[in-house]
Amino acid sequence: MINLKTYKGFWLSCFIAIGMFSCVPTKNIREVNKSTPKQYKNAANDTTNTAKIPWKHFFKDPHLIALIDTALTNNQELNIMLQKIGIAQNNIKAKKGEYLPFVNFFAAADLDKVGEYTRDGAVEQNLNIREDEAFPEPLTNYTIGLSASWELDIWKKLRNEKKAAVLEYLASVEGKNFMVTQLISEIASAYYELMALDNQLTIIEQNLNIQQNALKMVKLQKQAARTTQLAVSRFEADVYKNQSNKYNIQQKIIETENLINYLVGRYPQPVTRGSDTFLEQQINPVLTGIPSQLLTQRPDIKQAELELEASKLNVKIARANFYPSVGISAGVGFEAFKPKFLTHTPESLAYSLVGDMVAPLINRNTIKAAYSTANNKQLETIFDYEKTILNAFIEVSNHLSKVENLKESYRLKESQVNSLTKAIDLSIRLFKSARAEYTEVLLTQREALDSKMEIIETKKDQLIANIQLYQSLGGGWN
Fold it and tell me: Where does the record place a coiled coil (predicted)?
């Protein structure tokens, strides 16, 4: 029979404890600053944003698209991140189960022999179970039944832990999305680097043919006493220099190919590319939209925001530790000293019902420290969120300016290359007719080679800057 006075006393104790712990410490944390400038410098105040375009539509090169597709399946770092997402998802299930009742099945058998000169021993010696049936010695005991325990989540501590786990899971998904944008950017940048190296190698080989022909001409002129050995040696030195540069570029091509293979998640092999059309690559304009779109488009900003929300819940969880925890445990089953008696009811029936309340009273330093740590971490995530927004805006501004400046630089270098290419033929004709010195021919060839190498480098920088602008706006993960 349930004793109502006992339960009244239990709940009265609960209310007293709640009153004692109602004055727990609190700390005010400032609100996060989400403000951004209204528009980018020298950019139209238009919400049209290239970042919303899927990466398969942003890139046009089928070889590059195939590489990215393979990397999104095989890249080891990305697959490691996917496993972390799986771990975060499992954590949600674990946290959800903590605020539900735990029910266990149990079965036990034990053997007990007490001393005769003890209270229990004296009782056993004089106790007969039934007529002509003595108390068994040693005493065996068999138990079978169900037990249940449940912590009443009256302060929403367990529910907040589950919500925090959900936010951490969503943050890990955004972290994966940010990794995807970085991976795509790295592969595309390395791909265009490889194409640029191919074109530089072609330019060096073409220049070597010109220089070797010029060397033959100078040797013939020396035989005709129209020039000196000094001119021959200078031309030979330039040939050797470019031959050396050729091997350097070949090594860079191997290393860049291997970098792409590593990102794609495969062993070294040739990378298919269309380097012949490198200088004809179209650079489509990237529309930046407005800065506030970064908050919803960039995965790293969304990740920081979710982590901030999780940190707020962690503060509530830490604060709930100051309050008493209330639990209920119960059990029901059968217990007897012989297995044959287990089915005899109600004699072998055993049950229990316990309600308990546990509250920290003295030496709460650990709880206070945990609460202070949770507040500090929340403030840390606020600064991290604001830093991520600031960094995103600066990245877009830098890449936007770089795209515009490289566009003008490429236009001027095209004019430079055209002028110096014409100057090579002119200098050789003048040298043949003894109207120019060999140094003028050498200088013109060097300048023409440098300008051709530079325009390829500028074209590569243009393509990579466009990719980086697309990534910094938050494009590439969708």
Answer: 403-466
- Residue 8 is classified by DSSP as H
Please, what's the largest Cα pairwise distance for the chain?
142
Taking the C-alpha atoms of residue 287 and residue 396, their distance in angstroms, rounded to an integer, is: 11
Record the tokens describing residue 15, joined without a space: 């209310």
- Taking CA atoms, 221 is separated from 214, 217, 302, 430, in Å, by 10, 6, 71, 13
- pLDDT 10s digits, 374-414: 999 999 999 999 999 999 999 999 999 999 999 999 899 88
Sign of torsion, CA 260 265 267 272?
A: negative
3-state class (DSSP) for residue 271: coil
Strand partners, 284: none
Looking at domain 102-152+325-358, its CATH architecture is Single Sheet (2.20)
| Mean of pLDDT values over 427-437 | 66
CB 109 within 8 A of CB 142: yes
Q: Which residue has the tokens 């008493």?
A: 324
CA distance 96 to 86: 16
Q: Give whichever of 132-136, 177-181, 213-217 has the largest mean pLDDT.
A: 177-181
Distance CA 38, CA 36 (A): 6
User: Tokens 């500028």 sit at which residue?
Assistant: 458
Read off the tokens for 443: 């200088």
| Count of alpha carbons within 13 angstroms of residue 215, beta-carbon side | 14
* 357 SS3 class: strand
The Cα 244–Cα 452 span in angstroms is 18
Per-residue pLDDT of 12-27, as tens digits, reads: 555 555 555 556 677 7
CA distances from 194 to 60, 267, 464 (A): 17, 17, 12
CA–CA gap between residue 414 and residue 56 (Å, rounded): 30
pTM summary value = 0.83
Pair 335, 142: CB distance under 8 Å: yes
Could you tell me the residue ranges of all domains in the chain? 33-99+155-324+363-472, 102-152+325-358
In sequence order, the β-bridge partners of residue 107 are 144
Helical segments of 277-360, H only: 294-297, 299-320
Architecture in CATH of 33-99+155-324+363-472: Up-down Bundle (1.20)
Distance, CA of 460 to CA of 196 (rounded, Å): 6
CB-based burial label for 423 (10 Å; 0-12, 13-18, 19+): middle
Highest mean pLDDT: which of 226-230, 232-236, 473-477? 473-477
Read off φ and ψ for residue 204, nearest 5 degrees: -65, -40
Closest CA to 349 of 365, 332, 363: 332
- The residues, ordered by sequence, that sit 6+ positions from 439 with a Cβ below 8 Å of its Cβ are 234
Dump strand ranges (E) for 312-419: 325-336, 349-358
